[in-house]
Amino acid sequence: MADDRDDPILIRSRWGTNDYVFNFRNPVACVVFVGLGLLVFGLLYASNHRSTPQWEEGELRSAVKGATAELSEEAQFGPGIPGYGEVLQSRIAKHGPHSESPHSSEHDAGVVGALASPQPEHDYFGESVEEADYTVTADGTDTALCLTVTALANRYGYSSVSFSIRNGSCPAT
């Protein structure tokens, strides 16, 4: 053929498979092929690089105060229960500024509640005092808050859970 624009975009394979393949002698087929590759790359990149919400210092403080007030009032969970850090994270994220976002969830809220003291033992058959320190940070701010959680445990659960909030990371013990 004399003119490349007359070549079809798709042609039958010459390798004996009888499948249709792009005809790279046609400039439109080349543009379509490159465009599809860029589209696939962009979709894969976007699906793996979702942005996490960015917090400000005031938002983190407000969310921590709201979450600790709620947890104190409920007195269902204490630091002696395994996974209490995740309970803190989810409650702080729930009280955060990005909780209304349809794309936010507990896992991508950008809040980290890390245990900074030894895990306290939970006495399931008697009364005890459980105390633990958690360092709370969030994406977008350099602010770190130290939460000291003190819970009075009895055999039926917790009679009270109280929090004290300090600026900065908790000292490692």
How is the largest sheet built, in terms of strand order?
A: 3-4-5-6
Query: Mind summarizing the main beta sheet?
Result: 4 strands, antiparallel
Q: What is the radius of gyration?
A: 28 Å
Alpha-carbon distance between the termini? Answer: 80 Å
Percentage of residues in helical conformation: 25-40%
Q: Which stretches are poorly predicted, pLDDT < 50 over at least 5 residues?
A: none
* Shape verdict: elongated
Q: How much is the average pLDDT?
A: 84
How many E-type strands? 6
**SSE series:** EEHHHEEEE
Report the portion of residues in β strands.
25-35%
Keywords: Membrane, Transmembrane, Transmembrane helix
Transmembrane segments: 24-46
Secondary structure layout plus pairing:
Elements: E1 10-12, E2 20-22, H1 27-48, H2 57-74, H3 84-94, E3 111-115, E4 128-138, E5 144-154, E6 157-167
Antiparallel strand pairs: 1-2, 3-4, 4-5, 5-6
Helix pairs in contact: 2-3
3D structure, described in words:
- With 173 residues, the chain is of the alpha+beta class.
- It has 2 domains: 4-48, no CATH class; 57-167, no CATH class.
- Helices cover 29% and strands 25% of the residues.
- The protein has 3 helices and 6 strands; from the N terminus they run E-E-H-H-H-E-E-E-E.
- A 4-stranded antiparallel β-sheet has the order 3-4-5-6.
- Helix 2 (57-74) crosses helix 3 (84-94).
- The longest helix is centred in the first third of the chain and has 22 residues, at 27-48.
- It is elongated.
- The N and C termini lie far apart (80 Å).
